[in-house]
């Protein structure tokens, strides 16, 4: 018996409740369940138990609803429950579970609520543990948060009670089987021909680049595409908390951090991996995300012969990115003067590429900023590209808002 998926048909509240009862009914007979891998036997077993339960309980239900119930129950017994079909859908980029009854998905850059749901919080916890078990990770009251990576590269984050008040939360960032190319970004309007030519030339010229943007803006995707411009005769070392980069390059060494164990030991941080990468004869170092003490080691690497290195950073603009680098350096224990730190950052970085997500869900390269120098203690930068609709050009100052301001000013270097 082969069951077909029906993405259009959603279960009503009454059928969701029935599915919960059937799920518990099947779990009570767990010893009789066929082993994983025996698909036909499992299908027959679930079908027989479901139809028998419906018949003896005198429940009015049609054939189509029975087929959907059986399919969902098989997914919940062997797969990842209601999110199983979402994981198989290549059009979905994010799966966000806020407790057992609220599942959101991101499709084509837009967030929408799904009609799918878990039976209860215990069911959601079982699925989370089923996801984590093959990865050698665990989540419980002593360790209620976990980050992990699925074998297909998808990133998983889970938070359970008591930290998650309204039930366990699960976030899955999916990645395309086939990474996007420069031509794809051109077709999607992420950049135009001039921006593509500029950044391709910058990579060939071995410019040190920082890709900045908010969560979900497309920083990793852009970093992937920029890395594809690197020549095949160079040795790349990537460093990430959860390996997401999928570089189409013949010579790549991939390193991944390791969180602390249950007793707090055996942690390997990004800073440790950056230091070790310097001993591995890299031509370029590609850091998935700067978020801590590794900022100092990465700046040092960029400034000591590893030209063409790249990294991403959470920031809302190029200016915010520079400020955030300073802030992270302070957290990392930097004891020098502010001016010396700014000189170090300015001499290390060549370009900051700011990518963002517009209101319609489209990802777009918003700014390409050149870091020129430091003058009188302030960064001097030059806007090489800027995408900003005139409707969004509004003075932040209340005083300036009362003045007549020409929104179409020539782009020049400016001092901050």
From TrEMBL:
Domain Bacterial type II secretion system protein E, which positions?
77-357
| GO molecular function terms listed in the Swiss-Prot or TrEMBL record | ATP hydrolysis activity
Q: Which Pfam families match?
A: T2SSE
What CDD domains does UniProt report for this protein, alphabetically?
A: VirB11-like_ATPase
**SUPFAM superfamilies the record matches:** P-loop containing nucleoside triphosphate hydrolases
- Superkingdom is Bacteria
Q: Which PANTHER family match?
A: TWITCHING MOTILITY PROTEIN PILT (PTHR30486), TYPE II_IV SECRETION SYSTEM ATPASE (PTHR30486:SF15)
- Family per UniProt? Belongs to the GSP E family.
What's this protein's name? Type II secretion system protein E
Protein's organism:
Methylocaldum marinum
